[in-house]
Design a protein that fits this description.
By secondary structure, this protein is an all-alpha fold. The protein has helices spanning 2-13, 24-35, 63-81, 86-112, 116-125, 127-136, 144-150. The model is unreliable at 5-24 and 36-50 (pLDDT under 50).
């Protein structure tokens, strides 16, 4: 739960960093595909790589905390799956927030009840999950639409 909020804040804070750009060759291929009147003649898109197993949350989490971690991992997967299309990612983030608003509210309310020691313990036992997810959330960091979508996350 705390990890989710930290991950969202960190993703929003690093928006100023530059994301990877397409190579000139990739841009030429995109133009060629757009001009090609016979889509059947184009090679098929390569299948998406299989999802890597997620890091496991630490033992001792509450059911609500584990739901928050699973939600955070899904958010990281959204970033990874849409890393090449930032506008699509922004749309997916907005839908994600709408779909998860009730759980986000529960997590925020729960976190307000935790002591500093409890928050630190949660962070310590779930550090691997947080680090894994933060790596995935590096996509589209210079996208204004992604930055705006991340601001939709409730924080209070």
């Amino acid at each position: 739960m705390r990890t989710l909020l930290i991950a969202m804040a960190a993703a929003t804070a690093v928006v100023a960093c530059k994301a990877a750009e397409k190579s000139p060759e990739a841009k030429l291929e995109d133009k060629a595909r757009a001009a090609d009147p016979t889509p059947a003649a184009r090679p098929a898109e390569p299948p998406a790589p299989p999802a890597e197993p997620h890091a496991q949350p630490g033992p001792g989490n509450s059911a609500l905390e584990n739901q928050g971690i699973a939600m955070m991992q899904r958010l990281g997967d959204l970033f990874a799956a849409n890393a090449q299309d930032c506008d699509k990612l922004a749309t997916e983030i907005k839908a994600f927030v709408v779909a998860n608003r009730p759980l986000l509210g529960q997590l925020i309310a729960e976190e307000k009840q935790l002591t500093t020691e409890q928050k630190e313990a949660f962070d310590a036992r779930n550090r691997a999950v947080q680090e894994e997810t933060m790596k995935k959330m590096a996509a589209c960091q210079d996208s204004a639409s992604v930055e705006a979508a991340m601001k939709d996350f409730p924080t209070e």
